[in-house]
Amino acid sequence: MIRSTAVNFIKSCHKTVPYIYFKPCANHSTNPDYVNATEPYEVFRSRFVNAFDDPKIDGWGARSWMQKLHLEDAVPPPEVVISGLKACRRINDIALAIRFIESVKFKCHAAKGAWEWLQKEIEPTMKQLGLPTLGQLGYDEPELALIDYDD
C-alpha cells in the first residue's frame, strides 16, 4: 500500500517537475576575461604580480587579491608568492604574511613536492624581509596532535 503510493507520487513528480541539467564548468578563473576558459600562464602571473606590486595597495586590497589567488585552481608561482609577501611587508602586516604562506602551503597539497620546491624558491625573500618560516613558528605540524599508538 505504502509502496504503491510512493511509486505513484514519484511518477507524478516526474511528469510535473522538469529535470534540471547542470553543465559542468571546464575551468574556473577569477579573471572575467577568461571565465570557463583557460587563462594563459603569463596573464595569470602578471595579473597577480602587478596587483601585489602596486605601491598604493592597502590591507584590504592585499587581502582581496590573496583571496582571488586562493580561489584559483592552481598552485601560485613563486613570483606571485614573493610579490604577495613584499606587499605584506609594505603594509607592515606580518600576520597576513604568515596566513598567506599557510594558505599557499594548503594549496600545495594537491601536488607532491610542490611545497618543498616553493619553499626553497621563496626562502631567500623571506629571510630578506625578516619573515620566519612555518617550521620556525611551529606551524608545520598541529599543536595538539596526539601520537596514535594504534598504527
From TrEMBL:
<comment type="function">
    <text>Component of the cytochrome c oxidase, the last enzyme in the mitochondrial electron transport chain which drives oxidative phosphorylation. The respiratory chain contains 3 multisubunit complexes succinate dehydrogenase (complex II, CII), ubiquinol-cytochrome c oxidoreductase (cytochrome b-c1 complex, complex III, CIII) and cytochrome c oxidase (complex IV, CIV), that cooperate to transfer electrons derived from NADH and succinate to molecular oxygen, creating an electrochemical gradient over the inner membrane that drives transmembrane transport and the ATP synthase.</text>
</comment>
<comment type="subunit">
    <text>Component of the cytochrome c oxidase (complex IV, CIV), a multisubunit enzyme composed of a catalytic core of 3 subunits and several supernumerary subunits. The complex exists as a monomer or a dimer and forms supercomplexes (SCs) in the inner mitochondrial membrane with ubiquinol-cytochrome c oxidoreductase (cytochrome b-c1 complex, complex III, CIII).</text>
</comment>
<dbReference type="GO" id="GO:0045277">
    <property type="term" value="C:respiratory chain complex IV"/>
</dbReference>
<keyword id="KW-0479">Metal-binding</keyword>
<dbReference type="InterPro" id="IPR036545">
    <property type="entry name" value="Cyt_c_oxidase_su5A/6_sf"/>
</dbReference>
<keyword id="KW-0496">Mitochondrion</keyword>
<keyword id="KW-0408">Iron</keyword>
<dbReference type="Pfam" id="PF02284">
    <property type="entry name" value="COX5A"/>
</dbReference>
<keyword id="KW-0349">Heme</keyword>
<dbReference type="InterPro" id="IPR003204">
    <property type="entry name" value="Cyt_c_oxidase_su5A/6"/>
</dbReference>
<dbReference type="GO" id="GO:0006123">
    <property type="term" value="P:mitochondrial electron transport, cytochrome c to oxygen"/>
</dbReference>
<dbReference type="GO" id="GO:0046872">
    <property type="term" value="F:metal ion binding"/>
</dbReference>
<dbReference type="GO" id="GO:0005743">
    <property type="term" value="C:mitochondrial inner membrane"/>
</dbReference>
<keyword id="KW-0472">Membrane</keyword>
<comment type="pathway">
    <text>Energy metabolism; oxidative phosphorylation.</text>
</comment>
<keyword id="KW-0809">Transit peptide</keyword>
<protein>
    <recommendedName>
        <fullName>Cytochrome c oxidase subunit 5A, mitochondrial</fullName>
    </recommendedName>
</protein>
<keyword id="KW-0999">Mitochondrion inner membrane</keyword>
<comment type="similarity">
    <text>Belongs to the cytochrome c oxidase subunit 5A family.</text>
</comment>
